[in-house]
Amino acid sequence: MVTWSSVWSWTPFPPMTFFSVIVAAFMVGVGWVLLATALRPRPLSRTAIRFKTAARAARGSGQYFYDPKAGGENKSPFPTIFEPASVYLSVIVPAYNEEGRLGHMLDEALQYLEWRATDTTGYSPEPFTYEIIIVDDGSKDGTVRLARQFTDRYGSGKVRVLALARNAGKGAAVKQGMLVARGKLLLMADADGATRFRDMENLERKLHEIADWEHELGAVIVGSRYVALAEASRTVRGRAPTSKNGQALTATTAAGSATEHRTAEGHVLRDWRRKLLGKGFNWMVKYLGGVCDIRDTQCGFKLFARDSARTLFLTQHLTRWAFDVELLYLAQRLGVPIAEVGVNWTEIPGSKLRVVRAIVSMALDMLRMRARYFAGIWRIEYA
């Protein structure tokens, strides 16, 4: 027969000490839940959001870009994401010591964008205008000089350079570029040119298909190295209607493209070690980062509607490699429609990523992110 005395004989503590520990743990747990509940962000009214947006737009971005027509240097002020869109597409290119790879990426991107701006036969939901914003993240090489050569060639209306004073991390660079963009759609694209740029059109089509314009949520489309191009795309979350005509989403063939380093069939070329590490990282993203059902969070090719970008990048706190996970975590919490679309991608020599070190750093960042949002220390910044 089990008695209380037999139970206490198995514990090294006196009964009062044991009960005190249980009660203290319970009180701490209750206090934590109450604190998290009290600090959890609450949506603002539409009127409050518009007032807040107008006030921020009036203050300006405080950032300046190189404009040859204004005497050079960084003398022309950037707008802010709180102002109405004035071009159709903004391309944000974070760059750190990318003098050797940036030129190839910009040549390919601009060739496609210039073709889209003049083509009248392809996919065009509205008049196509664009800008590219190269965000130099405190480079020590000639990245800024190279980027400004493209501004000289195409003009500051199409190519702008935002030079940060010191290295702040890829996430910080992308955030700075997004917050001064003019586009209705905002594309994040890596400076190495690993993703075939004209695949953007697949992301663009999917965004228009699933975007929630009515509730000002927009959409986020993730370029994915794990979704086969035969699948075209895969809706993850949100209110994605079926295609009206049932046609597959395929990239438009632009006139010429510098893509000799990619396979013609659209396969992904990756080192086997990165594939193995990628599978382990996907497990971390799901269970540490809280991002479900997205196969490729780290591909540097993502398309945002302006409404989505404004809220997500205002809230973003992580500045290093895990910032993509935070953006997708926030999008899922807010109910923003998300989809993955297959892209042509290959690994480009010259990567500065130290994979194992980056994964450890990202795991710690994801744990910190989840704890701080849960406790209400970090709050969603409604825009």
From TrEMBL:
Glycosyltransferase 2-like domain sequence ranges: 90-207
Pathway connected to this protein: Protein modification; protein glycosylation
Any one cellular-component term (Gene Ontology): endoplasmic reticulum membrane
Biological-process GO terms, alphabetical: protein N-linked glycosylation
Key words of the record: Endoplasmic reticulum, Glycosyltransferase, Membrane, Signal-anchor, Transferase, Transmembrane, Transmembrane helix
Domain of life: Eukaryota
Molecular function GO labels: dolichyl-phosphate beta-glucosyltransferase activity
Enzyme class of the recorded protein, top EC level: transferase
Signal peptide: none
Sequence similarity: Belongs to the glycosyltransferase 2 family.
Protein name (database record): dolichyl-phosphate beta-glucosyltransferase
Protein source organism: Cyanidiococcus yangmingshanensis
